[in-house]
């Protein structure tokens, strides 16, 4: 049975761009014609401390708010979430739904046999993907880790195509956007690092695109189908 | 001396074309944007011909306050500055409003408490100030998380209390808020509540009209109180001739004035009904025996629970969402729970002020069991699964 909704939980560390990723995921899904909502974890975020964000995508209007307690997909942005317990939930996969998916940004397998046994019992798939390494290779900076994670997500779960992902990224970086004072300063740091905004967008797009294609191949090899039915509406985002 | 009336003015001070409130809210073509609740505040204020706004930072309303400041830079708000504290802010917007300005401000949690003395003062001076309240937990222990205990404190300040469920509601309510609050027969403040973070920081699709049209400017000459100027000092407003006198005239003046403020809120009903498209909204099976009565995010979560109950348990339920708490939509509520056997009141606070309200207004009008649950606080979310579990507990017991 196909889902009506995909709930995504993104544990990571402050500064990795999990909040930005959630907003891009929801904007892209909205562009694709789904209903979508995103929000950050509500706390005093700081660099390297646990941070979490959430996105919900569905085929009917979404009322649900706040933290995702029962996720279909968990995107682990940093290995510390698993190895050092830098997570709001313990274990990090608490509440995961049957037939779910976990994407882990890591170069190595971090799960214990107990973890694997539990997740297998729920038929949860695990995609271990070195997103930070991938970001450095494709964008020349680990700051594009979140773009690699966004690409990997949609590569795995389908539903939202590359055009919509690109729209989501452009919407985030081309228009003036205030998420918080912290994000504003992060933006200026990002801009200094990349020198030009357009160059930044291009690198982000390339990273997301490459990660999308790689993950789509993995999903195909696993026999994963699209997580949602086709979008119910196709309305352009202004 | 020019004697222009509102209807003769074609553009406001920002150069936006003035349209009727009905056109702005119901008829103007709308376009979809994807934004946070804080950004929705900015978009509403941009179309509201606002004369003055005063801000003070506190999580989670800081971004909304900041964005109103951007509107000032862009020329859409007449006066904007940062107050010394929330007490200062609420006093300063009162001064602006007494001088005939359309004013708006925002606050949250401890900020609301610090400013509290001003809310009954606003009501007593009959100023149509709008406060966008992004509810947050109050100390102690310290919390910056969503929790709406403070809304319970505000219910009897003499201000209208409206509760927006999401960014769309918030956008529409801010515009409607000015229109209703400024009606000469009403002319009391309006506090437009949303749950902090759940609405302020959540990004979703909303439909909004173009930004080159705006509400007609506030016309203070229609107010029930004179505008302060060199001949009408603020003292006239504050009713202080009665302050230090202990006699029956002063008691009666104070009491009748307090009654009049409440009566003004009652007179807002027909206007609020029109501009909010009803004081309540129903979701789910209209005949259901299981009814959730809620406002704000609690209504959102209950809607998800209604879907889950139907899809997974085959149980019919409905949500009665209250859009206004002052005035309280008791007639609508009584009619909507006619079939109810169980009325659940989900809330984001520990005390259950909403359950108290519901119980009071349904006393003698409903035989349903009223259950003040589930109740979460201090920033916790209320997953639909938790609400379903609560319902199943009661349904199975009986």
Report on the structure:
The complex is a heterodimer of chains A (238) and B (398). Helices cover 43% and strands 16% of the residues of chain A. Chain A is an alpha/beta fold and 238 residues long. Chain A has one domain (5-219): Pyruvate-ferredoxin Oxidoreductase, domain 3 (3-Layer(aba) Sandwich). A 6-stranded mixed sheet of chain A has the order 2-3-1-4-5-6. In chain A, helix 4 (131-139) packs across helix 5 (145-157). The radius of gyration of chain A is 16 Å and the shape is globular. Chain B is built from 15 helices and 16 strands. Chain B is globular, with a radius of gyration of 21 Å. The mean pLDDT of chain B is 94. At the A-B interface, helix 1 and strand 2 of A face strand 2, helix 3, strand 9 and helix 12 of B.
Give the topology.
The complex is a heterodimer of chains A (238) and B (398).
Chain A (H helix, E strand, L loop, with lengths): L4 E9 L4 H15 L2 E6 L9 E9 L14 E4 L3 H4 L17 E5 L7 H9 L3 E5 L1 H9 L5 H13 L4 H13 L6 H14 L2 H26 L16
Parallel strand pairs in A: 1-4, 4-5, 5-6
Antiparallel strand pairs in A: 1-3, 2-3
Chain B lengths: L16 E2 L2 H7 L3 E6 H10 L5 E4 L6 H13 L4 E4 L3 H13 L4 E5 L1 H6 L3 H7 L5 E6 L13 H6 L5 E4 L3 H15 L8 E6 L7 E6 L4 E2 L19 H5 L9 H20 L1 H7 L4 E5 L5 E5 L2 H17 L3 E6 L1 E3 L3 H7 L5 E3 L8 H10 L6 E3 L12 H14 L1
Parallel strand pairs in B: 1-10, 3-4, 3-5, 5-6, 6-8, 7-8, 12-13, 12-15, 15-16
Antiparallel strand pairs in B: 2-9, 7-14, 11-13
């Amino acid at each position: 049975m196909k889902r009506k909704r995909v709930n995504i939980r993104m544990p990571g560390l402050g500064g990795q761009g999990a909040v930005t990723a959630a907003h891009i995921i929801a904007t892209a899904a909205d562009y694709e014609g789904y209903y979508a909502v995103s929000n950050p974890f509500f706390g005093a975020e700081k660099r390297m401390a646990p941070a979490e964000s959430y996105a919900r995508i569905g085929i009917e209007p979404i009322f649900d708010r706040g933290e995702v307690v029962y996720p279909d997909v968990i995107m682990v942005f940093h290995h510390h979430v698993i190895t050092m317990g830098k997570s709001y939930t313990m274990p990090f996969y608490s509440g995961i739904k049957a037939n779910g998916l976990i994407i882990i940004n890591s170069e190595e397998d971090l799960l214990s046999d107990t973890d694997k046994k539990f997740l297998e019992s729920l038929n949860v798939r695990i995609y271990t993907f070195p997103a930070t390494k991938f970001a450095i290779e494709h964008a020349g900076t680990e700051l594009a880790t979140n773009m690699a994670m966004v690409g990997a997500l949609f590569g795995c779960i389908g539903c939202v195509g590359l055009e919509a992902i690109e729209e989501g990224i452009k919407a985030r970086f081309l228009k003036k956007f205030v998420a918080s004072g912290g994000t504003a300063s992060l933006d200026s740091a990002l801009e200094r690092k990349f020198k030009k905004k357009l160059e930044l967008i291009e690198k982000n797009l390339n990273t997301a695109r490459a990660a999308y294609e790689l993950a789509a191949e993995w999903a195909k090899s696993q026999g994963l189908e699209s997580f949602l039915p086709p979008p119910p509406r196709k309305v352009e985002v202004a | 001396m020019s004697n222009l009336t509102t209807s003769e003015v074609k553009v406001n001070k920002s150069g936006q074309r003035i349209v009727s409130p009905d056109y702005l809210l119901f008829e103007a073509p709308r376009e979809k944007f994807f934004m946070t609740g804080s950004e929705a505040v900015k978009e509403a204020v941009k179309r509201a011909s606002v004369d003055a706004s005063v801000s003070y930072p506190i999580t989670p309303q800081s971004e909304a306050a900041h964005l109103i400041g951007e509107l000032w830079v862009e020329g859409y708000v007449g006066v904007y500055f940062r107050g010394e504290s929330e007490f200062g802010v609420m006093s300063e917007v009162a001064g602006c409003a007494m001088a005939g300005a359309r004013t708006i401000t925002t606050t949250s949690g401890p900020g609301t408490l610090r400013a509290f003395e001003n809310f009954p003062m606003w009501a007593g001076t009959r100023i149509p100030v709008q406060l966008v309240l992004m509810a947050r937990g109050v100390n102690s222990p310290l919390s910056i998380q969503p929790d709406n205990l403070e809304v319970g404190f505000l219910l009897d300040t003499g201000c209208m209390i409206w509760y927006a469920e999401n960014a769309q509601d918030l956008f529409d309510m801010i515009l409607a808020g000015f229109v209703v609050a400024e009606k000469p027969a009403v002319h009391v403040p309006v506090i437009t509540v949303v749950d902090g973070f759940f609405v302020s920081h959540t990004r979703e699709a909303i439909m909004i009209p173009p930004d080159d049209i705006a509400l007609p400017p506030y016309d203070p000459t229609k107010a029930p109180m004179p505008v302060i100027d060199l001949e009408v000092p603020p003292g006239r407003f504050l009713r202080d001739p009665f302050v230090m006198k202990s006699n029956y005239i002063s008691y009666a003046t104070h009491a009748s004035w307090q009654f009049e403020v409440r009566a003004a809120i009652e007179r807002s009903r027909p206007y609020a009904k029109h501009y909010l498209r009803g004081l309540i909204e129903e979701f789910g099976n209209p005949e259901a025996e299981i009814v959730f009565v809620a406002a704000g995010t609690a209504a959102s979560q209950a809607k998800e629970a209604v879907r889950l109950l139907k899809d997974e348990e085959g149980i019919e339920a409905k949500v009665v969402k209250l859009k206004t708490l002052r005035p309280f939509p008791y007639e609508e509520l009584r009619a909507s729970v006619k079939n109810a056997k169980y009325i659940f009141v989900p809330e984001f606070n520990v005390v259950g002020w909403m359950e108290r309200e519901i119980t009071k207004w349904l006393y003698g009008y409903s035989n349903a069991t009223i259950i003040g649950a589930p109740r979460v606080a201090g920033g916790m979310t209320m997953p639909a699964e938790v609400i379903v579990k609560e319902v199943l507990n009661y349904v199975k017991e009986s």
